[in-house]
Design goal:
Elements (H helix, E strand, L loop, with lengths): L1 E8 L9 E5 L4 E15 L4 E10 L37 H17 L7 E3 L7 H8 L4 E6 L6 E3 L13 E4 L10 E7 L2 E10 L8 E10 L5 E8 L6 H10 L2 H11 L11 H25 L8 H19 L13 H8 L13
Parallel strand pairs: 5-6
Antiparallel strand pairs: 1-3, 2-3, 3-4, 6-12, 7-8, 9-10, 10-11, 11-12
Helix pairs in contact: 1-2, 4-5, 6-7
Length: 357
Amino acid sequence: MAGDEVVVTKSGKKTYGLDRFFSSLYGKAVPSVCFLSLALISVRCGTSYPVRMEQVVRERAPDLPKAVKKPTPGQRGRPKGSGNRNRREVALSPYLRLVQGTIRAVLTLIGAELAVRYFLYDGAFGHNEALQMVRQTGLHLISKLRHDAALYFPYEGPYAGRGRRRKYGHKLDYRRIPDRHLKSSSVDKGIRTGVYQMLMWHKCFPEPLNIVLVVKTHLRTGATAHVVLFSSDRELPHDRLVQYYRLRFQLEFNFRDAKQYWGLEDFMVVKSIPVHNSANLALFMVNLSQALIRPLRAQCPAFSVNDLKAGYRGRKYALEAFKWLPKMPEPPEPIVIDQVMARVTQLGRINYAVGTT
């Protein structure tokens, strides 16, 4: 299961949930409505199927209880009166509660038909509160940390003889990653890609994380860049973790099709329930179109949504044209309707397979 947000720009002032949300397309916050979409991804086919869509409505943050006394400037250590916190018991924000409720609704919907084990999200879930929220639903989180996240190797030295055992070892230096953690390496077009996997500590998380580093090095200039992926499942191999995280991008294709073909960017309703229905109808049409296209791609791999719409549009035109005939011709000059439909429905298509209608 994967989740992501989609932002739909709006120019009016009456649409339910209207606010300023960040749009990656514009590179800034714009007047818009925002939806959280959860989808099931077929690992074998690499296809995303939207299941549930909920509107994100910003709420005013509730009043928080009085915090402990803040330390005065220059004072070292924890504030007086503060105690140890259990990092597994976190206070969820309204947004995390929305995501958690949506995950549980999807799990209830699919029941025992599918065994879902992982939940994928982008770097916005690279913190302990999001991880604990996902673990409370019974799933493992796969996400991304900041590129400069402070990670520590588990301490493997001797016991000091007093106090609790030390758990943090040396801090990870992203420029000098030990070769013993290298899992795979490849070179393509002058760029070497190295994949490292380690079990590491982060001081904001209560348990070690399954860390996978994807490091790209330009062989001519020596410039490097890296991505820090992680999972709460410490047994997940590096290749599957990278594969699963890449599949999260399939949701972007769902959003593209919903906006370009099925009216997600064009609905004009302003009330809560019509807005919810319009967005979910657009995502439903994404699933329906994928189901209709799948058998046609067996004969024409390039068959697209435009071809599908052109075919059904041609079928509608042909049926209307038959209604204009004064009467149906009789033998020996019959009209073979199936042949006419097959020819008419090809009009306007970009790609088509021989013998399809």
